[in-house]
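Q: what sequence does this backbone want?
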C-alpha cells in the first residue's frame, strides 16, 4: 500500500455550532448599543394582523415623540401607498395598538393626534390611577358617648348612581349600537365623548340610519379591543362635507293674460277678462 501523505490538508471544520438544528431559522444576535426599539412578540407574531400592519406598528413605535404619522407622511416613506397604509392603520386601531383623534388647536388648525400602544394587552385591567375619579375617603367612625344622627342616603354622584339612558339623539344612537353588534358596547363616558361627533353628522343632513350604517358596516371579524377608538376614527375620517348652499331661485316670469275674443270685432286679444279689444273700446275706457 502507498504511504500515507502526511502533507494532505486536514478536513475543513464546520463553522456551525453543534447544537444548531439542521433546518429552520438560526439566529446570530448582537447586542444593540444605541438606536434600537423593543417590540413585543405579541405584535411581531400576531396571528390576525397583516405583515404590513405589523411592520407599520414597529415603525411607528420607533418614531420619536411628536413625529408625524399621517397617512400621507407614511405613504411618502414606504412603497405601499395610501390605500394599504390606511388599511393597516385600521387594523392596528381594531387590535388596540393605535388610536387616532382629531384635535383643534388654539389657532383653529385641526391636527391628528396618534397614540401608539406598545403593549395593549397590559392596558386591559390596568390598575393605573384614573385622574377623573375622586379618591375614596373612608368614613370616620362616630365618637363615643355622642348621639349618632340617623343615616341619610348618599347623594347621587357619578360614582354611586346608575347612569340613565342618554336622551339626546346622538348619544342614544351610540348607546344603541350594541343592538347591531354586541362588540360595540360603549361606556357612558365614551358615549358622551363621541356624541358631539355624531351631532356634527346629523347637523350636516345625514340621517341617523345612515350614521348607524357607517359605524357598523364592515367591522373586522376578530374581537374589538377598543370599540370607542374604532368609532372615533370612522366618525372623523368618514365625515362627509357640508351640503353646498343652494343658489337663490329667481321667480318665474309672469304668465301672459289669456286670449279673449273681442265682443266688437271678434278679434283675439289678451286680457284677464272678456270684453272689447283696445280698438273697439270707447275713448274714455282707453284713457282710463
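A:
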Amino acid at each position: 500500500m502507498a504511504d500515507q501523505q502526511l502533507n494532505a490538508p486536514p478536513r475543513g471544520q464546520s463553522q456551525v455550532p453543534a447544537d444548531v438544528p439542521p433546518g429552520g431559522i438560526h439566529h446570530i444576535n448582537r447586542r444593540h448599543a444605541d438606536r434600537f426599539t423593543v417590540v413585543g412578540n405579541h405584535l411581531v407574531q400576531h396571528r390576525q394582523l397583516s405583515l404590513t400592519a405589523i411592520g407599520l406598528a414597529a415603525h411607528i413605535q420607533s418614531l420619536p415623540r411628536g413625529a408625524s404619522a399621517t397617512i400621507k407622511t407614511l405613504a411618502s416613506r414606504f412603497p405601499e401607498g395610501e390605500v394599504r397604509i390606511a388599511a393597516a392603520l385600521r387594523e392596528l386601531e381594531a387590535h388596540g395598538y393605535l388610536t387616532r383623534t382629531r384635535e383643534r388647536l388654539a389657532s383653529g388648525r385641526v391636527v391628528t393626534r396618534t397614540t401608539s400602544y406598545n403593549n395593549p394587552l397590559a392596558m386591559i385591567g390596568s390598575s393605573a390611577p384614573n385622574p377623573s375619579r375622586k379618591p375614596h375617603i373612608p368614613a370616620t367612625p362616630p365618637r363615643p358617648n355622642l348621639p349618632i344622627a340617623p343615616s341619610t342616603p348618599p347623594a347621587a354622584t357619578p360614582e354611586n348612581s346608575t347612569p340613565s339612558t342618554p336622551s339626546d339623539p346622538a348619544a342614544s344612537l351610540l348607546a344603541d349600537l350594541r343592538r347591531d353588534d354586541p362588540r360595540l358596547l360603549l361606556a357612558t363616558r365614551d358615549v358622551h365623548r363621541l356624541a358631539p361627533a355624531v351631532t356634527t353628522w346629523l347637523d350636516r343632513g345625514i340621517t341617523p340610519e345612515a350614521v348607524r350604517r357607517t359605524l357598523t358596516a364592515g367591522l373586522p371579524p376578530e374581537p374589538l379591543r377598543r370599540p370607542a377608538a374604532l368609532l372615533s376614527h370612522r366618525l372623523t375620517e368618514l365625515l362627509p362635507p357640508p351640503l353646498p348652499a343652494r343658489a337663490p331661485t329667481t321667480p318665474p316670469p309672469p304668465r301672459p293674460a289669456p286670449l279673449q275674443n273681442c265682443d266688437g270685432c271678434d278679434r283675439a286679444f289678451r286680457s284677464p277678462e272678456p270684453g272689447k279689444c283696445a280698438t273697439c273700446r270707447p275713448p274714455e275706457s282707453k284713457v282710463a
